[in-house]
Structure formats: C-alpha cells, structure tokens
Design goal:
The complex is a heteropentamer, with 1 copy of chain A, 2 copies of chain B, 1 copy of chain D and 1 copy of chain E.
Chain B (H helix, E strand, L loop, with lengths): L6 E12 L2 E12 L3 E5 L6 H9 L6 E6 L2 E2 L10 E4 L11 H10 L5 H14 L15 H14 L4 E5 L7 H18 L2 E6 L2 H7 L2 E6 L2 E6 L1 H4 L6 H6 L4 E5 L3 E5 L5 E4 L8 E13 L4 E7 L2 E7 L9 E7 L4 E2 L3
Parallel strand pairs in B: 3-8, 3-9, 6-7, 7-8
Antiparallel strand pairs in B: 1-2, 1-4, 4-5, 9-10, 11-12, 12-18, 13-17, 14-15, 14-17, 15-16
Helix pairs in contact in B: 2-3, 2-4, 3-4
Chain D lengths: L3 E6 L4 H16 L2 E6 L2 H10 L8 E5 H9 L3 E2 L25 E12 L6 H4 L14 E4 L4 H14 L6 H11 L3 E5 L4 H7 L5 E5 L4 H5 L4 E4 L6 E10 L5 H12 L1 H11 L2 E2 L8 H7 L12 E2 L2 H20 L2
Parallel strand pairs in D: 1-2, 1-3, 6-7, 10-12
Antiparallel strand pairs in D: 3-10, 4-10, 5-8, 5-9, 5-10, 5-11
Helix pairs in contact in D: 1-10, 3-12, 5-6, 6-12
Chain E lengths: L15 H25 L16 H7 L2 H34 L5 H9 L6 H15 L4 H27 L3 H8 L4 H30 L2 H6 L7 H11 L4 H23 L2 H6 L4
Helix pairs in contact in E: 1-11, 2-11, 3-4, 3-6, 3-8, 3-10, 5-6, 6-8, 7-8
The chains are: A mainly alpha, B alpha+beta, D alpha/beta, E mainly alpha.
Bound molecules: adenosine-5'-triphosphate (ATP) (2 copies), spermidine and magnesium ion (2 copies).
Amino acid sequence: MSRRNAVLLLVPGLALLLFGFLVPAVMMLLHPPDTPALDVGHRLAQMLADPFMLGIIWRTLRIGLIVTAVCLLLGFPVAYLLSRSTSRWSGLLLALAIFPLLLSNVVRTYGWLVVLGSKGVIAQALTGLGITDHPPQLLYTETAVVAGLVQLFLPLAIVSCYSSLSGIEARLEDAARGLGASRTATFRLVLLPLAMPGAVVGATLVFAGAATAYTTPVLLGGTRQTMLSLQLFNYSSVTIDWAGASAVALLMTALVFAVAGASAWAGRRRVTA
Amino acid sequence: MRDGSDAVVRLAKVSRHFGDVAAVDGVDLEVPAGSLTALLGPSGCGKTTTLRMIAGYEHPTAGQIFIDGRDATGLAPEKRNIGMVFQSYALFPHLTVAKNVGFGLKVRGVAREEIRRRAHEALELVGLSELSGRRPRELSGGQQQRVALARAIAIRPSVLLLDEPLSNLDARLRVQMRAELARIQRESGITTILVTHDQEEALQLADQMVILDSGRVAQAGHPRKIFPAPANRFVATFLGYENFLTLPGRGLVTIRPEHVAVLPESGTAPDGGQSRPGTISRITYRGTDSLVTLDVEGDTILAAASDPDLHEGSRVRTFFPDDRVVPLAS
Amino acid sequence: MRDGSDAVVRLAKVSRHFGDVAAVDGVDLEVPAGSLTALLGPSGCGKTTTLRMIAGYEHPTAGQIFIDGRDATGLAPEKRNIGMVFQSYALFPHLTVAKNVGFGLKVRGVAREEIRRRAHEALELVGLSELSGRRPRELSGGQQQRVALARAIAIRPSVLLLDEPLSNLDARLRVQMRAELARIQRESGITTILVTHDQEEALQLADQMVILDSGRVAQAGHPRKIFPAPANRFVATFLGYENFLTLPGRGLVTIRPEHVAVLPESGTAPDGGQSRPGTISRITYRGTDSLVTLDVEGDTILAAASDPDLHEGSRVRTFFPDDRVVPLAS
Amino acid sequence: SEHAITVSTFSFGTEQFNQVVVQPFEKATGIKVQVETGNNADRLAKLQVNKAHPTVDVMLISDYFAALGEKQGLFDKIDAAAVPNLSKIYDFAKSTDGYGPAYTFQLLGELYRTDGITDPQKAADWKTLWDGGYKGKIAVPDMAPTAGQLFLSATSDVFGSGPGDVESGFSNLTQLAPNVLKFYTSTTEVTSLLDRGEVVAAPALDSFAVDLVKAGKPIAWAVPAKGRYMATNEAQVVKGTAHKADAEKFIDFLLSADVQSKAAAAYYDKPVNKDATVPDVLTKVAGDAAKDPVAAGYTTLDMAPIVANRTQWVERYAREVSSK
Amino acid sequence: MSRAGRSLRPARERRPVLTVLAVAAYLIMLGPALFVVAVAFTSGSTITFPPEGFSLRWFGAAASYRPFLDGLGTSALVATAATVIALAVGIPATLAVHRGRLPGRAVVQNLFLSPIVLPELVLGLALYQQLMVGLGVTASGVLLIGHTILLLPYAVRVTGASLALADPALEEAARGLGAGPVTTFFRVTLPVLRPGIAAAAVLGFVTSFNNVPLSLLLQGPGTETLPVAMLQYVQTSYDPVVAAVSVVLLLAAVVVAVVAERLVGFNKIFGGIGS
Ligand SMILES: Nc1ncnc2c1ncn2[C@@H]1O[C@H](COP(=O)(O)OP(=O)(O)OP(=O)(O)O)[C@@H](O)[C@H]1O
Ligand SMILES: Nc1ncnc2c1ncn2[C@@H]1O[C@H](COP(=O)(O)OP(=O)(O)OP(=O)(O)O)[C@@H](O)[C@H]1O
Ligand SMILES: NCCCCNCCCN
Ligand SMILES: [Mg+2]
Ligand SMILES: [Mg+2]
C-alpha cells in the first residue's frame, strides 16, 4: 500500500476524532458556553480551595481505590484458577465471568436494591436467622456504592488478570516448586511479579470506571455519597454551570490519569525489584 | 525407609493413568549413582510423564518411586531436592540470570553472599559467568538452555532431570550443546535422567538407554549393546534400521542402509553373507553418498552407496553381510 | 524487448539496498527453462529478497530482471504470471482447498467449469484431490504445503518460486515432501527457483545450485560439480567440510571427516595421500560410527571412524587421501 | 405541518395524560400534539439551550422553574381573551404578570407509616422529625424536587420568623440531617422508601400518597399544624413559538372544568377550576385542602426571593444539609 | 486467549483461600441478577424478596410503557448506526496503520485508541457543551457522534488484532496469483478480517446499547435511550417493571453470547476488553 493511499484511508477516522472528540474536548476547557475566558481555571482554583469540593474529590478517590483493591483481591484468584484449570467447566466459568459485561449497568445495579434494601435479602436473612431485629442500614451508604461498583468492574479485573496469567507458562510454577519454593513462595516470587502488567491494566481500567461511574452512585448512594461524576452531572444538567462542569471534568480526568500513572509506576517498580 | 538397591532413583512397577490412557504402564527402572540414563521413544510414549513423576509434579496411580533409597512416591516437588530442566527452559523472565540461578538457594534461606558464590560457580560450570546480569530474553537459545542447567545444578540436587533440553535448538547448536552437556554432567558427576526422542543424542550421551513404547520399557541397556542388536522391530525402526526382510535360514532380519552393499549384476558374490538380485528404482544424491532405493524380489531395500556408476533402472546384486544382519523376534 | 539468452529468468547486476544494508548486491543469475535452481545460503544472505524481487513484491535499487525474455523490472506482481509458494504457505483461510487452488484462475476470469477442471488437475498432481472441500486449518502441515504448491501451479506460471517451502515441517515429513517436490517439478516441467538454507535439500533437488554470501553469489553450478569442489572456505564450511588445514605442497585445503582415515600409529602409510601423526582427544559414539576428534600437530581434525579399537588419548596416524583433499583459494 | 404543537411535561403519568388531555384535544381541535417528557431542570435547561429556535410550544412546569423561565425570557405572556377558562380558576392560580396560569397544585405535608407513627398529632407536627425518636427512619427532600424548597420554607417558618427566614431554616435542617436516612432527589422516590419500610416518615407532596392510601397500605398523609405551603404547576407558552394561538387553545383546554375533573380522577392533578369535581380519594388524603387550599390555610411561596437566591440555597443545602 | 499449559500441580493440592475468594467473586457478580429474575415474576407491586406469588403482569406493564418501547427503538438505532460508522471509518484506519508503512504509526494508533481512557461523562460533556449548546447540532446528531467516538477504539483495536494475526503474505499471495489491489482487498483482506469485524461489531453494539453517561447527557427530544429510560424509572418508582425489562435484556444478552460464541468465540471477543 502506498503511503498516499494509507493517508487517504486515515482521513475519515482522523476527521471524526478531530471534530467529534479532540476539538470539543479542548474547547470545553478553553471556552465553555456563556463563560468568560479562563473561567474554568478560576473555578478549578476555587474548587481546590473548597473543603466541600475537596471532600468530594477525596470520596471519589477513596471509593475508586477501595473498589479497585477489592476487585483485584477477588478477581485475581478467579483469573488464576481459570487460567490453570483443565476442567471442562472452566470455559463456561470464564464465560460466566465475562457475561455481565453484556448487561447494562442499570440492570446490574438494580439487583442490589433487592439485596440491600431494609426488606431485602440480607436484612431478611439476618432477621430470619434471629441474628438481629434491626438489620443495619445497607442501602444509600458508601458500602452499597462500593458493592455495586465491585460487581460492575469485577469482570474487567478478571479479564485483565486472566490475559496476563494465562500468558505465564505453568512450567514456571513447576520450576519454582522443583527448586524448593513452597506454594506461597512461588506465588510471591514468580506469579505475582509476572502477573503485574495485567494487574496494572486491570487496576487502571477498574479505577477509571469506578471513579467516574454515574449509574451506581446515583442508584445506591445518596446525597452524602456525592462523587465527581454526580457533581459534573449536576453542574451540566441541573444548575447549568458550564464552567463548573468543565472544571469538574478536568478534575475527573486528572484523577484518572494520575492514578493510572501511579499504578503503572508502582507495577514497574514491583517487577524490577 | 531404605531399600536394598544402591540406585539413586528406582521406579518399581510405576504406572500413571489419565482416565483411560495408560501414559506409563508398569515401568521398572534403576538409575545408578553418577550415571546418565536416557529415556528414549516416540512422541506420546510416556517419557515426560515418567520424568514428571520422578520430580513430583505427577503422582503414580500405581507403583513406588525411591529417591536416594527413600520412598518418595507422595512427596511434594519442593521436598525432593531434584534439579529439573524443562524443554522450554522455564526461566523466570523477570529475574536476571544470576537471580534465576540463585532462586533455589534463596527459597532455601541460604545467605546472600553464599547464594552469589554458588550461583557464580554454577554459571562458571556452564561458561556463562559473564552474563549474570542479563535477563533471559536477552540470551540466545543455547545460552538460555545453559542457564536452565546452571539453575538446576546450583541447588546440588540428588538427581538432574532433563526433558528434551536440546530440542528447541537449531541443528548446529544442538550438536554443540550436546557436547557441552556431556562435559558438564561428567564434571559435576550428578546422576542424570535425560528425556529425548533423538536417538543420536542418546547414543552419544547415555550410559544407559531406556526405550519406551506406549508406556512400557521396550529395551534397556548400554547404547553400544542396544544399537547393534535391537530386540524387536519397534526398537529397530526407532534406531533407523530402514530395511526389514526375510532371509533364508535367518527368518525376519533388519539391516541398516549403510551396510547393504550394491554390486554389479555380474561378478562373484563375496563370502560371509547373502546375495540377492535387484533393480535400482531411484537414486537420491546426498553429497558424500547417494541413497539408492532398490526393488529386491518384491522387497523395497534402501542402500547407501557412493559408486558413481549406478543408474536408475540398472539391474544389480545386493549383498547382506552376515555380521551386519540383525535377526528379530517377529 | 527480448534479450538474447534463452533463460526463463535472468537477473542482470541486480541489487537491493535497504537503507545502508545491501541485502542483494550485484547478482547475475540465469535460470534455464525447465530447470530447478536452488538459492542457498545462511540466514540473512539475501535469498528471500532475491526471490521477492523476481516475484515483484520488492523492486531492485539497481539492475534488471528479465522474465521470459521481457524486462519485468518494474512490473506489478499480478502482471508477472509467477507461481509463488511462501514459507508460511499463505493459504486463504476462508476458502476451501479447491477455491484456494482456483483463486488465480478466477481472478483471471476463467470460466467456472474450466477452473474446476484445472484445480482438480493441480490437486491430482500433488495427490490431494480427495481433500478439495476442506479448509486449510483442517489440513496437516504437509498437506497445506502441497495445496500451496497446487495453487501456484494451477495458473501455469512461467516460473515457480519456492521460499523455504519445507522448513516448517518436521524432519521426517521434510524428507518425504522433498521427494514429492522433486516428482512434481519433474512431472510439471515448470522452471523452478527454490530458496533453502538446507544443503541436503539443494543437493538432492537442484540442477543448479547458487550459493549466496552477504548478497553476492559465492559459487554457482551443478551440485555434483560444486559439492566435491567448493571454491572457497565460505562454501566449504557451508557444505559441511569441517576440517581446514595446510598440507605441504598443497596449501590451504579442506576435507570432510568421512574422508579422513585414522590408522594405527605404527605401520606403513598408504600411497596417494599425506599422512600426519595425531592424538585422539575425544570419541563420540554415533551408532554406525564414531566421531573422532584429533589433535594433529596443533590442528583440530574431525574424522568419522568405526574402528572399535580407538580410544581417547591414543596416538594414531591420520591419512588425507589426495583425491579427497580440496585445495582452497585462501 | 400547520397545526401541530409540542408540549413538554413531566415524565410520569404520561399514558393517562395522553388519554385525558392530548387525545381529546387533538380530536376537538384537529391540532396534533407531540409530547416530550423530563424533569423540570432538564427541560428548562434544554429550553434555554434552544432559545433561538424553540422546539417546544407549551411548557408544563413547576412554579419555581416557571418563574426562572419568565426571568430568563423563555416564556411569553398570554392573551386572556384566548383563554376564557382563566375566569373560572382560583386567584392563586392566576399569574399577576400576564404569564401562563397554574393548572394544578401540590401540598406539602407529612407522609408517614401509620404502623410507625401511631399518633396523628405527632405526624402533624414538623418538629417530630427533629426529636430523634425516628433517627435513620426518615427521608427528607433534597433541593432538586419541588418538596425541597417547600420544606426549607416550612422549616424557616416553624423555627424562625417566617418562610423567608432561611438562616433559621438552614441551621435547623443541619441539625435534622443526622436523623435522615436519605435525602430523596425525586419526589416519587419517597413513596417506595415508605412502602418498603426504609423510612416511616417524610415531608412530601400529597399527590404521591394517593395510590398508597388507595391500595390500603398503612400509610397516611397529614396536613401540618404549622408551616402549610403549596406549589403549583404552570402551563406556559414558550417565547418565539410559531404556534401561539394553538398553544393558548391547549392551555384553555387544560383549564376546562371537564378536563380538570378527568385529570383529577385519572392522575390526581388537583383542579384549579372552581367548577371541577374533586374525587373522594383526594379529599380522603388531604381533606378540604384538596378542594380549596387557600381556605385550608395553605399559601404559595413568594417566588421573587427564591429566584434571586435559589442557586445559592441549592449549594448551601448540599454543603450544610444533605451531605451531613 | 490461550491456556498456559496443562496441569502443573499434583492433583491432590487444594487451594481453600483462593477458592473461597473466587466463590465470593461469582456471588457478587451474578447473585444480584438472580434476585432480579425472581422479582420480575412477582405478583406483588414492590420489589421484595422472596416475591409475593407468581405473575407475568410486569412484563405486560413493561411492554406497554411507551418510554421503554421508544427507548428500545432509539437504543437499537443509535447502536446500529454508531457501530456501522465506527467500523466504516475504523477498518480503513486499521488497514493504514497495519499495512501502510506509515511513519509514526504508533502515534496514529494511540490517537484512535485515546477515547477509551477519557471518562465517558467527560466526553459527553464536551460534546453536549460544544456541539449541542455551542453549535446547535441536534441532540440525535450529537448522540450518534458521541457513540461513534466511544466505539472507534474497539473497532480499531479488535479488527487490528485480527489483522495483526493475519499473515501479510496472504495479500502478496493474492497479488502473485493475478489479483489487483482492489480485488485483493475484497476477495482476501476483508474475508480474512471477518471474524475480527464480527467481534468488533458485537462488542461495539453492546457497548453503545448499554451506555448511560453519554446518553444521559446527550438526551434530547426523541433521543432517550432504553438504559436512560430505565434509570429514570428506577429513580422515581420502585415497582418491578424494570426487573421485567432486565429479564428481557438478560435473555437478549444470553442470545448475544451464544451468537458471539458461534461467530468467533465469546471469550475471545469480550475477553479482549480488559487487555
Ligand atoms: N494431563 C494429562 N491428561 C491426559 N492425558 C495425558 C496427560 N499428560 C499426558 N497424557 C497422555 O499420556 C501419554 C504420554 O504423554 P507424555 O507427555 O508422557 O509423552 P512424551 O513421551 O513425553 O511425548 P513427547 O515426546 O511428545 O513429549 C500421551 O498419550 C498423552 O496424551
Ligand atoms: N524490509 C527490509 N528492511 C530492512 N532490511 C531488510 C528488509 N528485508 C530484508 N532486509 C535485510 O536484508 C538482508 C537479507 O534479507 P533476506 O530476508 O533476503 O535474507 P534470507 O537469506 O532470506 O534470510 P533467511 O534465511 O533468514 O530467511 C538481511 O540483512 C535483512 O535484515
Ligand atoms: N476498556 C473498557 C473499560 C470500560 C470501563 N469504562 C471506563 C470509563 C472510561 N471511559
Ligand atoms: Mg514430552
Ligand atoms: Mg528468507
């Protein structure tokens, strides 16, 4: 293929990206509607000095990190067992782990209302078993938001870890065991460092998704669990504060990139250590 | 629980079934201390499974395995003190050469300084002490193979197990590494079991050659004993005896192409063998000699010949020297 | 624009540079009609690049390429009527065997019935007419290779180009397919250029052998001419002449291990050659014979011997027959 | 097409709205109606966005957003002569500035579970929410739903000097916050919180109690002893519409006694037309206030200070109340 | 996705800790959906578990609720159109990147993948603010652009992975057999890419169909998608209508999974999302 033809093939895609993505994204920061120049920067500075906004940023970060940690803690074992299984069920189990990705977040989150409500499955189980007469409030708490987000993003964590783990030759574990390493030593010295790239990808995707999610916090949280995404939506669709919305968008993006960068760095350090 | 024999590894009626498949089927085997035993056989005959049972990655469904005189049948791999070199080398890609070699010592809690010393020693033995800071991916195939060997040796194992350690290398390197392997085994004196499907490799390296056929031992013994006298057609085929025919008074026999003489049709037959008339159906030039395909009274016979006067279609006389003809139990 | 020669393919001072690398460097080459020419040489010597220029996938930076007497230097591949078999076979995975073989005819607008007939014919030639309904992934490596060949032949090309067609096959299959390839080329009579790095393959198949060294022709001619008389050390090494030494009166010479005789130290030297004393440093058993490494007055000499009385450390006499010794232009 | 209008309305009860209002109107006038739905804020935002080329002709929207829209110049005054039914409606429903009228009203009261709060007196006292006995068992409107502003004004009134005393309102709501399970963000959300027993009481609009009461659930709605405020929904003509006459026809139709009666029966929009009939279910929930709210002591809020301060109050509510 | 080789461990070894964590993971992923299914068949009027009796009435209610039907239509339309456009624009770009010997191809490739790292709400906001409010592009137009941008990375990456696996010699072989560049594209390149294109199409359709943040911000007259309609319904009312819709969507997802399995391998398509 000649270079000229190659460039021609790229033109439609580049045009779409430019006018449907890059230009609007930049303009959103430089010039929101009905807003004086540089107002976004001004608003950003205000937000960073405002304890209320800082609280929201911190909650967003915290929820994102907790969800990421739980997803890795639960997802890694699933991925490991699937990658090492020779059972004929393993294909089905992998499919079941991936299947939720086909389902709308609304559908998936909706189930938690049934599970966590005050007459929900957990509460009824607790009272039914006589453990307590006053089941704890579960819905509209940070725990509910975390549970919902963990459910949403576990498949992503599993798939990332799986693709990394299934690329690690099983022989390496054999070799470590043969050299005298116990199971835990093998995990710590061989498996974990080698699975790190997949775990980092997984962590990045999960954090990016969890920290910017809208559906789940809006359904399972309340006004006390406000995250940046809800704030962005409020500014853009309720109070019509364009500069504020743009500033929150910038904050959200920066948060995602900062955490992605940090996890990539930590992953590299761990592997080379 | 010591058993009587002084073999370092002893398998007593060991079998391993996978569902219906008998991968290994009642194998008895003694590996004397300091020797090199080669497990040889075609793909799927059970070589790897046998080796993995000795290492503890697989457990026998019947029989017992003794290592250093103690029953090791149910022991976990990390408790056996065995050095294994995998076909794919299985080097840890995230560790340097030195750390790979030191791995087994590190998990044994050996002191840092001592690890360094012994890793260096093992790398010297395989001639790679210069490369200790590299990662596996920065090494050639032959170098990786030697690192795997050094890693296995560094823990001073009772037995060294090698699963087709050379089969991933190209022809030239394979020959070279084969000599290297012989040297290292000789110098270290470690009892070694080598899995291969390459008869040349086994012939060249082994003190004991064990040929497996569908999970059973087909023949075992010193290469110089087995090679000139394969016990049956399976072993003969495997060792490159291409010709099988029935000779009057000798029954079913086998003979290698190199030992079949192709003589002019007229002329007297030499003594000490049998002579049969034949026709040349094809000649394939091989450089030093040609491979001649003959039709000998209905049998297809291959002979290696360097006579430039042979032509396709010529009628000739084939000669089978008595001392080269191996009778087979059919 | 016809040129004088009756070669089907002619390369005139063809070069191909990639940046600073001269992959092919002033190659002259004539491929006579109906012949099989083998391009031989170590990795990176320019074999593939040469072939790809003939096929039109790559263009020379200098020189000219003639096909059927016409200047084809700048022609697009689809205009050259050349059948190419790729190392990876490059079978279309979405088409059946028959459709793969018929592809070249279809894009030429040949009628349906005619396509079917000729595809069937080509598949008969390679012995696969039974499998015409299968997909490539349902075939073994050897079968895929033959489909690729049938596809290339079906368009009745002026020239058939084969880039290491056998190197993806295992050893046993490779030998078998080599014979098959020879038969097909003979039966179809198509002028063929075969790239290989396997000297045995070239010796066995080629009417003309062209050995490349770093983009230049090192030696060219009939295998039976080249093999016993390599022109220089590069060619000799490549053809497996392991020994290089200087003999009084003959200068730098080379000789194959099979032709070096190892005789008792005492005893008379035979005529028609030169004799030198040596010490056996290593004997490697190879089954039919042993490879003996000797120290001959400072030179390391390899000899193939089957005498069971040789031992490491023995002093012996080596003998180099005059008719086996090849003088080299150093 | 010549005679076609777009009516923007709330996103619930659309089916009944269609049957009671839209289809009869189309039949009666031959004017085609396209219905669009959404919440107040969203719809007003979109109206603002499309100010130059309005895509909506009639806006049915709550009083605060209507006032906001009036201020932003999004709505047009109407010609009283083109809307004869204006003369039939209560005074509180009429615009003093000539804009579109209210067509229904909503009362703020206490929605509660009768198995949770057994004493109706306690239910009728806003201060009950503060006394800690129902900590974690009450829901309170966020500022986004209509009830939010009403409850802020009611709190200001009950604890302070009047509905405008928001300082008192905010400080008391801050104290209330720890007792609150959820600050509900859309009005209907609260009915399910009650129905499922997540909460026992919540300040809420009367209309949302109707289905629950009718279904015989242990739920009632109480008119508060003090702090009675109501909101209205208005019908506005969008400025710049090309179909102003048709829009006014639609509003007049909406105000007719017949349509008002049917709407009240079908989806509990309480009539502003004095001649309309109020179904029994509504009076069962809210008593006489369902018929003539002003007579029952309810007042609408003064929109001027709200329009001036609401953005700031929303922000303040988020910081000082709903996030606590 | 390939397995990393056969059983490596003595068959007797058990891993209690890993197994418990894995079981917990599956419970969290799938448990709530099972309760949704149960609730959908309740004859009661609230979402409580266990359901009160059995009835299909909520399916009837869902089927006659206009916003869901309209939303379904909108979602299907937008998802189809966005997928088709993303592929039509993405496949040529993929070809250029993989076969074009372009300078800086890594940069171009990353540019096409870049929307994936941006939070969807941010993309939505940018388009809403700049295209809809700023330039007055219609809501449906912006919705389509937004979804197309969202899918473009999948189109480029999935077809690219498929192209990277395809032997470049295939195209050369076709040329050598006498096919010109255009014939080669339609007779060889495109058919060879078919599994990749199918995978990208399924992945793209599902991603667009389920998207909430973008659709929520960009909804305008006539552009309310099904997930947005469901979200708004759940926010304002707790009857089991949405459970019924969820069951229908769940069944649809099963069908998609089975079809995807037949086409290319379900695990392969969706397994690629996270890598
Ligand atoms: N985990 C397993 N499950 C089922 N069958 C197995 C398993 N491992 C090995 N087998 C079967 O047991 C037989 C012996 O396998 P093994 O790997 O020991 O052969 P091998 O001699 O090493 O062959 P190769 O030369 O191909 O490596 C084969 O038929 C193989 O398919
Ligand atoms: N597209 C290219 N760009 C740059 N260098 C190239 C290119 N193609 C080939 N070369 C270089 O040209 C030389 C000859 O390559 P070529 O592929 O012809 O060798 P070959 O003889 O076929 O080797 P092999 O046996 O490994 O296939 C090598 O040094 C190679 O690196
Ligand atoms: N690779 C797909 C990850 C999906 C998670 N969404 C993240 C939101 C940022 N676009
Ligand atoms: Mg094996
Ligand atoms: Mg090549």
